[in-house]
Design goal:
The protein has two helices and five strands; from the N terminus they run H-E-E-E-E-E-H. The protein is an alpha+beta fold. Strand 1 (18-26) and strand 2 (29-36) form a beta hairpin.
């Protein structure tokens, strides 16, 4: 089974017209992760240069996912769907085969 982060990255590779903004909890701290075209980047902490180092570790808990139309403009994001639970997002991932 692929990790949460890898599955979300695969989703954005298959749906390059979307950006995912993922709110996670890692070691009791919240983080926001932007995922676009198969790549993840933290918006709140440094992201490793090595793409093999997961931005979303396996022990992270997904709080919510926002699906946003690309290109992403933080000043005025165009939401496709907001505050998706992890369970609901898993269904979306399954629909596209990741």
């Amino acid at each position: 089974m692929n990790s949460i982060g890898k599955r979300l990255e695969q989703y954005t590779s298959k749906r390059p017209q979307e950006v995912l903004l993922v709110t996670v909890e890692i070691a009791n701290e919240q983080d926001k992760i932007a995922i676009f075209k198969g790549f993840s980047s933290s918006l709140m902490r440094p992201t490793a240069f090595d793409p093999d180092v997961p931005v979303i570790p396996d022990e992270a808990r997904v709080i919510s996912v926002d699906r946003i139309a690309s290109p992403y403009n933080p000043e005025s994001p165009r939401y496709i769907q907001r505050d998706i639970s992890w369970e609901a997002m898993e269904s979306v991932l399954t629909e596209v085969g990741v």
